Amino acid sequence: MRRWLKRGAWALVVLAGIMVVVIGVAWGLLRGSLPALEGEQPVAGLQARVSVSRDALGVVTIDASSEADAMRALGLVHAQERYFEMDLMRRAAAGELSELFGSAAVPTDQRMRVHRLRARTDAHLAQALGGRPQVVQAYVEGVNRGLDSLRVRPWPYLLLRQQPTAWTATDSVLAGLAMYADLQDPANENELAMRRIREVAPPALYALLSHDGSEWDAPLFGEARGNAVLPQPDAFQLDDSRQSPPAAAVEQEVHGSNNFAVAGALTADGRAILADDMHLGLRAPNLWFRVRLRYPDPAAPGGHVDVSGFSLPGLPAIVVGSNGHVAWGFTNSYIDNADFVSVPAGAEGITVHEERIRVAGGATVILRVRETAWGPILHERADGSGEALRWTAQLPGAVSMGFADMARATDLDDALKIADRAGIPTQNLLLADAHGRIAWRLIGARPDRAADCPPNGFTTRAPASCAPWAIRSDHSPALIDPPTQRLWTANGRVLDGADLAVAGNAGYDLGARGRQIRDDLHAKQRFSENDLLAIQLDDRAVFLQRWWTLLRQVVEHSDDPALKRLDAASGHWEGHASADAVSYRITRAFRTRVQEIVTAGLLAQPKQSLGEGYLEPKLSQIEGVLWPLVTERPAHLLPAPYPDWNALLADAARQAEAELAEKGPDLSQRTWGERNTAAICHPISRALPAFARPWLCMPADALPGDSNLPRVQGPAFGASQRMVVSPGHEDQGIIHMPGGQSGHPLSPFWGAGHEDWVHGKPTPFLPGATQYTLQLEPR
Fold it and tell me: Which residue of 124, 611, 644, 705 is 20 to 30 Å from 79, comparing CA positions?
């Protein structure tokens, strides 16, 4: 027995030793992919020494002797901190994720590969690079030098048992095209869904479903649309026999942003101030990378560039920021950037491409793409007919590196000229300059349709006789030096009249955010940077307040046990989407249930008529229909099986109570923060066991904010950055970013600055004191 115990003890010692060695090797490999922060590093192609300094948050300052050297250094830094994330962007755009992740990614790749964006980019690469091929090539070489200089390949490749492949100029263009795919719908599905509904729905019903605004509109041009006028019984009635139970509502993310600006007339010293926060999916590390670039440039004011802001790893440019003379920021425009055209069976002029999707650990998948002069056929029926899609991202000029010239913009007028040649997804550009001026302009690639070939939108259809359109970025609508001295956009409708008819509607967001920002701007006559930050952080629940009043009417004095529990828990209206708010969460759940029931009733007839051809539409303006219905309560538009609207509202409240009670019987504990809890994680975290995932995530903070108010924050969606800055006064600017600069969990910059984003604590716009300096030397 003693001998066996002795042997067992030795076995445990050996096993422990093996585990220590394995852990040590794994730790060594993991640390081997950390970039060098100090010392000297030779870099081929540099013309002179470049200094790369980092502050305590990992914000990078690059001091170089030329733009090409600065971009070579930026490429090196991007690769060492974020190469895996850069790789995901180019692969997502090109439909090449399966090469890393295996067969599970094939459906995702097929949805993007049908657009053949890599092949199209290769064919028109010179146009994308424009006058900057040497600068882009310097960036590409810097990326590959940065990757090669790591002692161990980036850690996600170790987990995936894959090797990274080199970066190319085509990949930088694909990184830009990845933003098209994120901000627009590559399948243009909502337009197709509404077209099919229009073909089978009574006109009065389609008018309700396609109502394009509400009383919440806050456009820069024209007036609010107002709520829908409900049809009379002789125009349309719901058919009880066609109604089905409502489907669970899916939270619809608005891929866009808020931005707003005040002119010098509204500040104490004549400075114009710009605020910008872009709403996107949140992950660790964050999408953006903070950087300051300084280098001599004879074309820049004073012969020198000094630009700070947010870069996108993969692109040699500052995407949003300020250069001391001009500050700029974006929101997604939601104009109509794609059109479907019907393709009859047996149509001529169709080209067939075989796209080979390589699959890690599996056989290559062949995707057969049938392409017309309009674009690829996305929907094909058994008889050979279908619908071909033309999308701006498919066309030459969709991405152009010319927008990087904003780093050297002199003033507002100069920035507007640079905007003429910007190849980016169509955005609402807001500008502020050091002279106190501000401007809004539609910027980026947009369809150049013929006058008699309007956008499909929700109410018109491009005739089959229209020629395939090209894209343009010049001569777009603008509002310069507005009389109110204020500008704002928030993904809602901005335009009106003839300009709107040309731009089209790809699903403008409900105007509640925009209206709240507009009203905040008009509530004061003097502004500072902190005042604009306060608007960015405004979580007042203006939109839901009337829904709380309606809920109270439903639950007060009720004998129903569920409604009595709601009554007790919702009596106090906090007025904010704060983390500790209970009434806000209850009210939101109630409205969601009402919307589910009502929209199921309105969509039942088209859904039954279309059968398998039915696509669920995104009814972003449904509030303009929903509120008239629950206040006017017309019997002929009452969804089945309810005897009256009071019964429908009571049932919606009971459903909300049941949903909340699943988390615990005490509804007073069901705070908004319990539901709105941060889940900001590295993409690889999903492949790890549950116990290990927190290692690759930011803290699970209870977050304030929501979608229909300025402070947009959800568990994994929200403000991917915040910026408040006055050109010429960058030292007083404010900046926030969720997650951190580095994609490496052992880096000191993995989550640096995240807490300031969570709590809205002002962080200086410019980099802080230098903590680390790396010298790049010409080889």
Answer: 124
Instruction: Classify burial at 158, counting beta carbons within 10 Å of its beta carbon; exposed 0-12, middle 13-18, buried 19 or more.
Output: middle
Which residues contact residue 137 at a Cβ distance below 8 angstroms, ignoring those fewer than 6 apart? 169
Q: What is the chain's length?
A: 779
**How far, rounded to the nearest angstrom, does the alpha carbon of residue 392 sit from its chain's CA centroid?**
18
CA-based radius of gyration for the chain: 27
Compute how many other C-beta atoms are within 10 angstroms of the C-beta atom of residue 666: 12
User: Where does the pLDDT of residue 253 fall: very low under 50, low under 70, confident under 90, or very high at 90 and above?
Assistant: low
Give the C-alpha distances (Å, rounded to integers) separating 720 from 225, 509, 697, 713, 737.
Answer: 30, 18, 15, 9, 6
Mean pLDDT of the residues in the chain = 93
Strand partners, 431: 328, 439
Q: Work out the average pLDDT over 299-307.
A: 96
Residue 580 carries which DSSP code?
T
Q: And the tokens for 123?
A: 């064919």
Distance, in Å, from the CA atom of 585 to the CA atom of 268, rounded to the nearest integer, reads 40
20-24, 303-307, 623-627, 728-732 — which is least confidently predicted?
20-24
Which amino acid is residue 769, in one-letter code? A
Cα–Cα distance list, 552 to 104, 571, 684, 762 (Å):
47, 8, 45, 38
pTM recorded for the entire structure: 0.94
| pLDDT confidence tier of residue 381, bands split at 50, 70 and 90 | confident
Q: Residue 58, exposed/middle/buried by CB under 10 A (0-12, 13-18, 19+)?
A: buried
Q: Which residues pair with 489 in a beta bridge?
A: 259
Q: What is the pLDDT of residue 688?
A: 82
CA distance 516 to 721: 20
What distance lies between CA 552 and its chain's CA centroid?
35
Nearest to 411 by CA among 281, 302, 276: 302
